């Protein structure tokens, strides 16, 4: 099972008729009122974020969408067709919607037209990719993929004709950065091809996520720009190579172990906003932070946030504090919510956590495929 936790959070589509669950403005309305919608949908390229002194490191800008997701532009085809994608460590496939997409939500997205690309190669092989919040169905094609200056020739990707459960997303597709074993059968993921084709010198990529501002976030390939973190990177061995998975010792609150009592597993997942854990454990945590369930969301009194203590995630002998400002988020009309979510028991019989953007905004993360390890350091 692949996970992409931000799916289903927000909508940028006005092609669908929806019935709101609460009397709050949509994210699209809020962005329009603040004159941010057009800017957000435009090119995310920021030249100032593409500069590094090391020619072997390629920095690619990401746009922070209200601390809910991070998207970056790629192009597919010749001449290039541009798409906004999530760079997802929790999956391994690349897909975008095609002009043949029959799902109403596709009208809110940029669609790939294979007939307009001179380098496109067709395939009759079907493709189906499942996520924690939905599924996409289509067929496989091959074309040139560009991530800034990185050019990946004859990359296999999914041309999606049908989407299930993915109506309310703010991107056109997903670019997976997980292990090749997670990819659809016979597909070599983008990152693997970049290394195989000699486009990057080292099988390493890293993420820096900004907090509270649209610009400044980056994904980098081929090495590490150390200006994005403070102190030394702490390296953690990957415990299971199928995912970017590590062993975690415990999670404490005020010195009391509240989760991962006997040790557990954690997956670093840039494709989810949340801190995901087993429902029974998470429900106990919600009570400890005075969160109450309202319309399938756990609400936290905004006035309580400054009084709430930090959770301490202990990994490989090092403590990683997550303060209340990180494990909560402020929604429309000043309502505050918890970033803890339950549900990983469906994925594994072990106690397993997924550390998403709420954690990764605090800690610059490096993914070293060659040495099978993950590096963490406080983000600048």
Describe the protein's architecture and organization:
By secondary structure, the chain is mostly beta strands. It folds into 2 domains: 198 residues, Beta Barrel (Cathepsin D, subunit A, domain 1); 150 residues, Cathepsin D, subunit A, domain 1 (Beta Barrel), CATH 2.40.70.10. Helices cover 10% and strands 39% of the residues. The strands form 5 sheets. A 6-stranded mixed β-barrel has the order 2-3-8-4-7-6. The longest helix is centred in the C-terminal third of the chain and has 10 residues. The protein is globular, with a radius of gyration of 20 Å. It starts with 26 loop residues before the first helix and ends with a strand. The N terminus is likely disordered.
Q: What's the quick description here?
A:
Helices cover 10% and strands 39% of the residues. By secondary structure, it is mainly β.
Q: Order of strands across the widest beta sheet? A: 2-3-8-4-7-6
Task: Provide the number of structural domains.
Answer: 2
β-sheet strand percentage: 35-45%
Overall pLDDT: 87
| Rg from alpha-carbon coordinates | 20 Å
């Amino acid at each position: 099972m692949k996970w992409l936790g931000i799916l289903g959070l927000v909508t940028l589509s006005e092609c669908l008729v929806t019935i709101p669950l609460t009397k709050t403005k949509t994210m699209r309305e809020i962005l329009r009122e603040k004159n941010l919608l057009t800017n957000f949908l435009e090119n995310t390229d920021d030249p100032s974020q593409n500069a590094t002194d090391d020619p072997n490191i390629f920095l690619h800008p990401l746009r922070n969408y209200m601390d809910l997701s991070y998207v970056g532009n790629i192009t597919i085809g010749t001449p290039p067709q541009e798409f906004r994608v999530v760079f997802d460590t929790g999956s391994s496939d690349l897909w975008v919607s095609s002009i043949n997409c029959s799902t109403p939500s596709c009208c809110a997205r940029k669609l790939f037209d294979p007939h307009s690309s001179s380098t496109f190669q067709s395939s009759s092989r079907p493709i189906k990719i499942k996520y924690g919040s939905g599924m996409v169905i289509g067929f496989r094609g091959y074309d040139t993929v560009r991530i800034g200056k990185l050019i990946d020739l004859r990359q296999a990707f999914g041309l999606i004709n049908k989407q299930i459960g993915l109506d309310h997303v703010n991107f056109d597709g997903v670019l997976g950065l997980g292990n090749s074993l997670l990819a659809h059968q016979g597909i070599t993921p983008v990152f693997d091809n970049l290394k195989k084709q000699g486009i990057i010198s080292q099988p390493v990529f890293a993420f820096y996520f900004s907090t509270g501002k649209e610009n400044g976030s980056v994904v980098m390939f081929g090495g590490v720009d150390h200006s994005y973190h403070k102190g030394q990177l702490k390296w953690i061995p990957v415990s299971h190579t199928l995912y970017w998975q590590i062993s975690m010792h415990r999670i404490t609150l005020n010195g009391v172990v509240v989760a991962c009592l006997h040790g557990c597993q954690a997956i670093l997942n840039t494709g989810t906003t949340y801190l995901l854990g087993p429902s029974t454990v998470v429900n106990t945590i919600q009570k400890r932070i005075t969160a109450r369930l309202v319309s399938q969301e756990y609400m936290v009194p905004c006035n309580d946030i400054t009084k709430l203590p930090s959770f301490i995630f202990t990994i490989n002998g090092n403590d990683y504090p997550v303060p209340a400002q990180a494990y909560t988020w402020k929604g429309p009309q000043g309502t505050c919510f918890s970033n803890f979510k339950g549900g990983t028991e469906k994925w594994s019989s072990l106690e397993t956590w997924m550390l998403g953007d709420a954690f990764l905004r605090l800690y610059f993360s490096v993914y070293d495929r060659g040495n099978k390890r993950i590096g963490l350091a406080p983000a600048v």
